[in-house]
Every structure is written in C-alpha cells, then in structure tokens.
Amino acid sequence: MDTPEYSKWGDRLLEDPTGPWGSWGHWGRRAILVGLVLSATAVLWVIILSVLLSKASTEQGTLQDHQDLLGTKAMKLTAVLGDLKKEVTAYNSSLQGVQAQLQTTSKELKEAEVKLMEQESTLRELNDRVTQSLAKAGRDLEDIRTELFRELGSIKVGNVSCSQCPASWIPFQGSCYFFSQQRAQWDQAQRLCADAEAHLVIVKDLEEQTFLTRNTRGLGYWLGLKAVRQRGKIQHYQWVDGVSLSFSNWNRGEPNDSRGKEDCVMMLHTGMWNDAPCNNERDNWVCEKRQSC
Predict the structure, then answer these.
(1) Is the N end or the C end of the chain the one with fewer CB atoms within 10 Å?
(2) Taking the CA atoms of the chain, what radius of gyration do you get in angstroms?
(3) Which CATH number belongs to the domain containing residue 176 in this structure?
(4) Domain span at residue 169?
(5) How many helices (H) and strands (E) does the chain have?
(6) What backbone torsions phi and psi does residue 152 show, to the nearest 5 degrees?
C-alpha cells in the first residue's frame, strides 16, 4: 500500500507526480520519438534509393545509347569489311591472271634463251671455222711470201732493189728481227716496234721458232701474241696481225692464266712460251718486219 509523502515544509501531503499515468506518459513520449526516428530513417532510405534508382536509370540509358552506337559502328565496320573482302577477292583474281601471264612469259623467255644459246653456239662454230680458214689463208700467204723471198734471196746480191736489214737487225727467211736489250711492258714494246715500221714477232713454224731460240741470249722476250677474252674468260690467242694461233711452243703447264690476268705471251730463254701479265716490265721483246725488194 502506497503511503503518502509529507512535505518537510508542512503537514500537507504531496502526491508523486510520476504516478501511474505519469509513467505511461514518459514511455509514450519515448515511443513517439523512436517512431519519428524510424520514420525519418525510412524516408531517408527512400530518398537514397530513389536517387540510386534514378542514377542507375540514367546510366542504363547512357549504356543503352553506347550500345546502340557500338551496334551502328559494328554494322558500318561489317559493311567496310565486306567491301574489303570483295576488293581482296578481285585483287587475288587479278594477281592470278598476272601470275599466269608471267609464267607464260617466263616460259617464252626460256625458249628464246635456248634458241639464242643454240644460235650463239652456231655462230661460234662459224666464227671458229672462218678464223681457222683465215689463219690457214694467212699461213699459206706467209708460206708463199717466204718461198718467194727464198728465191729472191738467191739473187738478191745482184738485185739492188732489195733493202738490207738495218744495223743490229738479224735477217732470216726474208724477214728482219730485232732482239731488244731493254725491257718494257707489252704495249710499249709493240709501239716501239711500230716506230721501227715493224711489229712484235709472229712465230709461224718450228723453223722460225728454232731461229728465235738461238738468239734469245738467255733472256725473256715478248711475242706478238695476245689472249682474246670474252666475259672474263680466254677464248683463244691471236697474233698482232689478227690471225689466230696455229703453231705454238708452250712451256709445260702453260698457258695457265694465273689470277686471270695473264693476257700476253713471252718467250723464255729456253725458247718455250709462257703467258704473263701485259704490264710486266721484266721482259725484252723481238720486233719483226719483212724485207722489201
């Protein structure tokens, strides 16, 4: 049983303000406050969710626009790719045609090359025959002239129209020979002979070769013989009068065209022949000219 409280200021009885109804009022206020807080929180979450949904919707729209743009670009690229495929197909077809034409042209060129090689071989054979014929004709002419000079030699004592060989020149079979004591390159030796109305010696046969060997005096001498090259290779040898080589007196192992630079021919002290570089300055030379009657 509740007992009333008395005030210390008097005998009047004071009642507790927090009686049954006061307690319920206190809890009611707290409940209302909690409700308001919850309501405010709910409203806040609704606002946040609304903002998020609005932003998501906006971004979705933007993504949709980007997707549509990408789709449009993809369609354009597909069209461009289709055009490129058509052009590549056309180029491939054109290249195949060009390739077929090149193969045909290459075949024709090979056939033409074979024909040219055959013609070149035929021309070479003909040239060799003509050269041999000319050489034979030249040799026959030399033989006739030699025989003629032999006959004239027997009567030249009484024939004042025949000129004698110059001093230091040696006569043999109607020709005069000069054996130099100086040394020079092949071209220079040929010019010195030409200045004397002669040429570097042309060896026609073994008899003339024997004569030359007897007069070499242990030295080496340039002959009037030179190589004819084609495409870097020696084809044949030719005398200074244009006649190809027929008689020869090569030393063993010669000519060897050492290092591909031995185009001129000289006679060793033994009388044997050797090919040598034309710019060699260690050799003498032999000039030859016909006696005139």
Answers:
(1) N
(2) 62
(3) 3.10.100.10
(4) 163-290
(5) 3, 10
(6) -70, -30
Contact call for residues 139 and 246 (beta carbons, < 8 A):
yes
Q: Are the C-beta atoms of residues 211 and 172 closer than 8 Å to each other?
A: yes
Residue type, 45: W
Q: Which of 5, 1, 29 is nearest to 16 (CA)?
A: 5
Q: For every one of its 293 residues, what pLDDT tens digit does the chain have, with 9 covering 90 and above?
A: 555 554 554 555 545 555 555 666 778 888 888 888 898 899 999 899 888 888 888 888 888 888 888 889 888 988 998 898 898 888 788 888 888 989 998 899 999 899 888 888 778 778 667 756 665 676 566 556 555 555 555 554 444 456 789 999 999 999 999 999 999 999 999 999 999 999 999 999 999 999 999 999 888 999 999 999 999 999 999 999 999 999 999 999 999 999 999 999 999 999 999 999 999 999 999 999 998 76
Within a domain: 84: no
28: tokens are: 């009611």
